[in-house]
Amino acid sequence: MKDLHLTVDNALEVCKALSHEHRMNILKILSTGPHNVNELSEKLGIPFSTTAVNVKKLEDMDLIISELVPGRGTQKVNSKNFDRIIIDLSPSEVELEKNLISIDMPIGEYVDCKAEPSCGLVGDNDYIGMQDDPRSFYETNRREAELLYFKAGYVEYRYPNRTPYGSSVSELEFTLEICSEAPYHKNDWPSDITMWINGIEVGTWTSPGDFGGERGFNTPKWWSLHFTQYGLLKNWKVTETGTFLDGNKISDVRIKDLQITKNPYISLKIGIKEEATNIGGINLFGTNFGNYSQGIVMNLRYL
């Protein structure tokens, strides 16, 4: 799958090119395969000249490509150049927040784990190791995982501590795409998912279910629709006043309790407590699975 990534600054002209019914229909037709202008004109039911003008506009924006191929003589054939167009609404580098350390951790970069079936690791193109075999979590290519899941257990990550010497940490947050783990998928399947930072329990979120039946935005096409497709993007944040989940306070653990500046790394552990009321497992999504193009993002703010 080929993506076109745009920023807010350079997206306007592409959006203008797409804001026309004929051009959108041309892209839909080209999604089925290459066509020349005559073929496009016939399928659209519009004049050749009108089709040619719209094809030229899409060519100018590099949204389609044209090449000369042998046929009855030589003919010009058009093909779609991208499968998806992604507009990044994040600020440009010059606008990035000061005194912020941001690290996107791949989900396969855990340093410790315990996984009980149903469990597994999934890469871009296939499973990693064997399904429902906890030994697969120790495979040497586990770092290539884009989806990991288990019914019970945990995974632990260690982030480099880049806090400048002499600074104090004011806020620490983790954002990740996550959901429950049910056989195949099940929207109503609660699971109590707990997070620990530097060994301290900071709070539990009850995932409502394991979501499938509709393909996740980044989920590869080979992955069956009957299985988990996407999760929910959740944000745990520890501040000077407590710990918050999606803006709602869930515990009294404060940033000073984590003693971040005294440790060479920052430990993040995500799992299911043995005494949890709802032991409904975990699905954790990477950059190329689910609805969000990220791993587990840590944002650390300091003074």
Q: How do the helices and strands line up, and which of them pair or pack?
A:
Blueprint: E1 3-7, H1 12-18, H2 21-30, E2 35-36, H3 37-44, H4 48-60, E3 64-71, E4 73-80, E5 84-88, E6 100-105, E7 112-122, E8 127-128, E9 147-160, E10 169-179, E11 191-197, E12 200-207, E13 211-212, E14 228-230, E15 232-238, E16 243-245, E17 248-251, E18 265-271, E19 282-285, E20 296-302
Parallel strand pairs: 1-5
Antiparallel strand pairs: 2-4, 3-4, 6-20, 7-8, 7-9, 9-18, 9-19, 10-15, 10-19, 10-20, 11-12, 11-18, 13-14, 15-16, 16-17
Helix pairs in contact: 3-4
Strand content: 35-45%
Strand-pairing-aware structural class: mainly beta
Give me the CATH fold name of the largest domain: Jelly Rolls
Structural domain tally: 2
Keywords: DNA-binding
Protein name: ArsR family transcriptional regulator
Domain HTH arsR-type: 13-91
GO molecular function, one term: DNA-binding transcription factor activity
What does this structure look like?
This protein is mainly beta and about 300 residues long. The chain has two domains: about 5-85, Winged helix-like DNA-binding domain superfamily/Winged helix DNA-binding domain (Arc Repressor Mutant, subunit A); about 95-300, Galactose-binding domain-like (Jelly Rolls), CATH 2.60.120. About 15% of the residues lie in helices and about 40% in strands. It is built from four helices and 20 strands. The chain has helices at about 10-20, 20-30, 35-45, 50-60, and strands at about 5, 35, 65-70, 75-80, 85-90, 100-105, 110-120, 125-130, 145-160, 170-180, 190-195, 200-205, 210, 230, 230-240, 245, 250, 265-270, 280-285, 295-300. A hairpin with a 2-residue loop joins strand 16 (about 245) and strand 17 (about 250). The longest helix has 13 residues, at about 50-60. The radius of gyration is 24 Å and the shape is elongated. It starts with a strand and ends with a strand. This is ArsR family transcriptional regulator. Pfam families: HTH_20. GO terms for molecular function: DNA binding; DNA-binding transcription factor activity.
